[in-house]
Structures are given as structure tokens and as C-alpha cells.
Predict the structure.
Amino acid sequence: MTTVFRNDFSADDPSVVTIGSFDGVHLGHRKILDRLKDVARVVGGQTVVITFEPHPRRVLFPDDEPVRLLNTLEEKLQLFENQGIDKVWVIAFTPEFSRISYQEFIVRYLVERARAHTVVVGYDHRFGKNRTGGLDELRQYARDYRFRIEEIPAYTIDDANVSSTKIRRALADGDVVLAAKYLGYEYPLSGRVVEGQKLGRTLGFPTANLETDPVKLLPAVGVYAVWAEYADQRPIPAMMNIGRRPTLGGDKLVAEVHLIDHEADLYGQNLSLRFVARLRDEKKFDSLQALKSRLEQDRQAALSVLKGQ
């Protein structure tokens, strides 16, 4: 069971520590986490992940388009627990915190509070004010304060480095298969079911309209095959539309899900989805009958993809 600390943390035992935003907790991140656990077993220490909320880029560049994230904080914490991490220290990333020098961060946070025995970092890790701290600076302080440093090289798939940026790009292109390959799991999305216009019912395809976290990245506009879960239900095959419903005269971006061969009152429920494949682009049809005919094809295509798993 992972213990989560918000801002205040003081380690009782020596720690094997890593630091980062860990957006996605993808296969590259997991290489670091696996090494964290290996070292902790050898030295008899605890694994500690130091991460930040909100994402630093949302604080450092407030005038830019806000970065959309692969994980909400709750998703990220669950992924850390799935990986068997002992403790997660969530530090509030504020403008004041961003001005802390790398020297102060090492001494106050890694040495005094985390009691770092070993610090495990990725090959390109930077930290401290203006990202002036890196591996060389950590090594310098490691000698003075007697902790060890381990650098983990980039994780590659098909000769490409795995990164949160590349996963975001894949999702922006609608390539949920590539995103899952880099993540090591199918991309998740969850939200509360809210009342919509109920137009899907008139076509024989009732949909659940999702109110999602505004921080969370939505895949590209289009129709997807997904698995859906709520309450204690087993995964339900479903198809999802992300778009503006041009055939129905819509102009607002919506995320709506049709649960295949499943009827239930979902209003107010929290629905969790896993993206498996993109079926097609969103399209404006000449008539509602043409739309309904295509939705029938989409349903069969989604079932074929999902049953193929």
C-alpha cells in the first residue's frame, strides 16, 4: 500500500528516491521505478517518489496554452501503487517553490527530509530554479552528503525514446495504439456522466455524456473502440465519440460513450474508459439515417476490435 504525503514529509528510514513529474508513468518511468525497488531491496530502504502538483509547466508558463496531461493526480498515484512504491511525496509546485535553487532542494528535500541513501534519476533530469541542477550537481553534493547517484538511460521502443511528449503527440494524432505501446497500458479516461441532449436515443444509440477533468488530455476528434467500467461492473464493450456532432448541428466538443448491448441509468455515475483503437474520423452525414447506418458499422467494428483482444 502506497502512502501519500502532501507537502509535509520526513522519512523515518533511509530512502531510495527519484524525482519528477512522471506524467503517464510510462515504460520509461517504470524502468526508473524498477531500479528504485531493486536498490531498496539491497540496502533495506524504502522507495520514495517525489512528484509535483500542478505540473510545473502550468505554473512556469501561465500565459501559454495549458499543457494537457496524460494522468490526473489520482491516476498517477494509483499507477505508483500498482508499481509497488512505498511512499509518494506530492509537493505543491508554486511560483515560490519554483525559485528554490538546486542546492537548497538537494539539502532541504533530498538530504534532510527524504534521508536519501540513493537518488535514481533519468538520463536528462533537471531540477531547481531555471532547471540549473542536473546529474553533475547531484554528484557533487552526493560526495559531500554521502548519498549515491544512479542514472537510468532512456528507454527505447523500435529505436525511439519513450517520453510523455511523444505519447501526448500520439494521442493528439488519435494513435491510441502507439500511445498504449509507450505507456505499457491502454490510455485511460474517466468522468462523471451528465445529462445531454439525448439525441442518441432517437437513433437507437443512447450515449453517456462525460464531464472530464479539464487537465486531462483528450485523444483526437474521432470514433474509438473502448472498454468501459463503472461501479462493480465488469468491463463493457463500448464505442466513443470525441467531437462536435456536426450532423446534429453541434458546435461544442463533447465526449460521449455508447455501451454496446448494455442498458443502465448512468447519470451521476463515474465512468472509466480504456482506449483500444481509433475507428474513424468524425464526419458530417447527409441525413440522420446515413448517420445511423454508419453507427451500426461502428458498433460492429468496435465489437470486432474488442473481442479480438
Q: What stands out?
A: The CA atoms of residues 111 and 135 lie 16 Å apart. The chain has two domains: 3-161, 186-307. The chain has ten helices and 14 strands.
